[in-house]
Amino acid sequence: MSDTFDLARFDEYREDNRREVKAAEGGLPQNLWESYSSMANTYGGVIICGVKERSDGSWFTTGMKDVLKLKRNFWNQINDKKKVSINLLHESDVKDYTIGDDVVLVIKVPVADREQKPVYINGDRFKCTYKRNNEGDYRCTELEVNAMIRDQPRRTIDGKILPNMDLSVLNVDTIKTYRMIMESKKPGHVFLTYNENRFLEAIGAAKYTEDGVLHPTCAGLLMFGMEYKILYEYALYFLDYREHMLADVRWTDRVQSQSGDWSGNVFDFFYRVSAKLTVDLKKPFQLVDMIRIDETPLHDAVREALVNCLTNADYFEPRGVVIEKYPDRIVLKNPGTCILPKAQMLRGGESEPRNANMLKMFNLIGYGERSGSGVPDIFDAWEQAGYVEPVIDEQFGNGEPSRTVLTLPLIEKDHHTNQHPGGNLGGDSGDDSSLVDWETRKAIVIRLLKENPSISTAGIASALNMTRRQVEKTLNMLKTEGKTTHEGPAHGGKWIVCE
Q1: What's the predicted TM-score (pTM) here?
Q2: DSSP class of 31
Q3: What is the residue-wise DSSP string for 415-461?
Q4: What is the mean pLDDT of residues 235-239?
Q5: Helix (H, G, I), strand (E, B) or coil at 121
Q6: pLDDT in tens, 274-306
Q7: Which candidate among 97, 207, 414, 416 keeps its CA 20 to 30 Å from the CA of 55?
Q8: What sign does the CA torsion over 461, 464, 470, 476 have?
């Protein structure tokens, strides 16, 4: 874990979403357990007892008394199931350090495994589960707790049989298209010799119940079902593609699952949208055996990103899947946070899709990775193309539904400071704020204020894929530096950029 406490860096540290200080002057603070729950359910972190925060964010020691007694109290409580749902720590995770004449106690909290979440306190899963964002610990909503519970099983929920539905809920034309693509990608595959019912069973789109009747699975319904039938099982299901290629037009193209003029299922959405996302990608002239090659690793990476988005979405969550295409970036948003930690996703080698059966169906037609190399391949393709690195951002808290956002900038690295790279320009929820490229972020916000002086804080956040807190922090910095001022009321006023 990157948050391991380093005594030599004590004066550099500040509280963030992986570091929390507690005064602990009167003993073990009760709100320590909220931080333990929140860190275990989010990115992990360290809780440092015997430290306070000054107004400027710097730390100082409090002269904590009797650290041995505090340690004993800590271990007694963390092993009490009535206090904490699970003890994730080993003895080596709790250490004391001497700083000057004082002692501090450092508690290293790992990320809980998916089967262990939610980590909660006081015996109440739905009222005492916490997560952590840039604003600190917050109490999870029932929706967030249920999402963690759904993600617990290794056998993913999209394999569930739907006994109240028959195969008539599936779109015949979608299945026919899928089989045609599979035949072109994998000619001679044994599944292609099966009749339709056996084919659907083989790919995981349908299963037999004990009475010998074949019913669709959740994966089959999502991939091949009619949208209005999908809503019976997934009431919040929604897919939306928005193309913003002209500044003065709300969108230049849109595909959404509720339009009623197409099936509205996941596979048809992928088939339509992948073509729109890749049509404008650069295609360097290349001949192989005197045949021009029009596809590049970038095209494959975009499709991989779209498959990742669709197969990792939590379709029980609100807001749905949203794919946005701009002249300078592609943004893919899916409901639900990442099952694997971001660091593991970037390393690769481990695959934990939220909807494994859907991913199997994409694999059978040549899309999606089961080896865990999908995300690294996307980043490698962007590196080879010379583009600014993609950004993965998890957004949650403040009463808003959880989302995972992947931004793919279409800007060459040497031009990115003068362009709009998109993505979460403040870094993702797990980043140390010291790693933020503040100058680039401020420059892009200024550019947006020049283009639209009447834009609201929420409008800036939406346009740049930043959180409201990140926007407010950036605007405050610009005001302090004398680079911007705001005239008029908060709602309806205008921004003035001071050259």
Answers
A1: 0.69
A2: T
A3: GGGGS---S-TT--TTS-GGGS-HHHHHHHHHHHHHH-TT--HHHHH
A4: 96
A5: strand
A6: 999 998 887 655 544 545 456 788 999 999 999
A7: 97
A8: negative
Domain 437-499: which topology?
Arc Repressor Mutant, subunit A (1.10.10)
> Could you please report the per-residue DSSP string of 251-293?
-SEEEETTSSSS---HHHHHHHHHHHHHTTS-----EETTEE-
Least confident of 23-32, 163-172, 424-433: 424-433
Give helix then strand counts, H and E, for the chain.
Answer: 15, 20
Distance CA 405, CA 269 (A): 18
In the chain, pLDDT over 70 holds for what percent of residues?
Answer: 87
| DSSP run (H or E) holding 233 | helix 227-233
3-class secondary-structure state, position 401 = strand
What CATH number was assigned to the domain covering residues 167-423? 3.30.565.60
129 secondary structure, DSSP code = B
Rounded distance between C-alpha atoms, residue 14 and residue 6, angstroms: 13
8 A C-beta contact, residue 369 and residue 377 = yes
Domain locations in the chain as residue ranges: 7-150, 167-423, 437-499
The DSSP letter of residue 411 is: S
At 101, give phi and psi (nearest 5°).
Answer: -95, 0
The answer to whether domain 7-150 has CATH 3.30.950.30 is yes
